Each structure stands twice: as structure tokens, then as C-alpha cells.
């Protein structure tokens, strides 16, 4: 059997926006080191590896060019998109992914692909001089969850003009920084490429919904495994 490789833009339906990812649909297990070497060679923010376990249940692992990570929203969306688009799983059936963060359930809904994640609720923190130095605009509120800071600024213009201090961030005990502002429309990912997503909360779950588009698919040389 062939091993297929797909290039996908998640949270987007065009060529130049959204979060890019590769999805590799495996036919048999491969070593972690090989996955890492493939992700490094492909050199996108995320390469997602899929391996069927049983009907509608797949193992899913995510690799950056430098390391394996425990959770990736856009890599999950891209993987589910491929399974439905290729007709491997019928659109009316949800998908369960087994991951290093536990089981993730994904469904196809009217607005696109809906991901269900356990809510990692943030707690308010003081806006210290160090926190303020992370961004070049005034901060209204700051919070922290298990692995990142969350900062709110006044409006969309402040957000779009923001320049993060990544050198300072690298010295702090978190893995990331999320900056947000009020919007009159929806949750827009205001990155260089941009992206569209919808977020809903219910009990202890956070639902993230977005669309994806396949840029191309190809065969991967299995001799490299």
C-alpha cells in the first residue's frame, strides 16, 4: 500500500491564509525518530501522522521540525479534514483521535470541522513590568493557564500593530503567548497569514471550529522508513 502525504491549510479555504500542515497517512507504525526526520525535512510548523487503530479511531501525533508536541489544534483539524475528504470515513461519522493528550473527538458540522478540547482555564495575573515588556502596546488584562500567558489589549488596531518580544518570552516559564482583543465579528487569527475560527464553551470543554483546504497530495517514498 502507498503512504499518502497531504499539504493542508487549516482554518482557511484559500492558498495564502490559515495554518499550514502536512498530514501523513501511515499504513503501519514507524519509529519516532523517523517521524521527526520527516517533519524536519518537510519543514512546516506541523506534520501530523495518522495511523488507523480501529473503525473511525486513529492514532495522531504531531511534530514540529524540532520536536514532538502533545497537542495541536490545526494539525488535528487538517487530519480530520483529510479522512473525510478522501472518503476514508463518511462525513456523518465522528472521528476519535488517540493522542499524547488523551482522546480527542472531532465532528463535521455546518461551520466546518469541530474539535473538542478540555478547557485549560486561565487565572488572572498582575501586569508586571516583565509582562508589559512582552508587547509594545498597553495591556488591559493578563492571565496564565498551564503553559502560556494570555494578554488582552484594547482593540483590533492595537492587536494588528503588536510586536511580541520573543527573546524575552523565551526566558520565561511558559511555552507561548496569546494576545487577544474585542471584535465586532468573530474570533479571527490575526497572524501574518490570518485564519478564521469559531470558539464555543460548554461545561469543561472548548469547541474550536474551522474549515480547511487541501493544497496537494502525493505519495511518500516508503523506502525512507
Structural description of this entry:
- The protein is of the alpha+beta class and 225 residues long.
- It has two domains: 3-119 and 205-224, Roll (Diaminopimelate Epimerase, Chain A, domain 1), CATH 3.10.310; 123-191, no CATH class.
- Helices cover 16% and strands 42% of the residues.
- It has five helices and 17 strands.
- It has helices spanning 32-42, 73-85, 129-132, 156-160, 166-169, and strands at 3-10, 19-26, 46-54, 57-63, 68-69, 95-99, 102-109, 112-118, 123-124, 141-144, 148-152, 176-180, 188-189, 195-196, 198-202, 205-210, 212-220.
- Strands 1, 2, 3, 4, 5, 6, 7, 8, 15, 16 and 17 form an eleven-stranded mixed β-sheet that branches.
- Strand 3 (46-54) and strand 4 form a beta hairpin.
- The longest helix is centred in the middle third of the chain and has 13 residues, at 73-85.
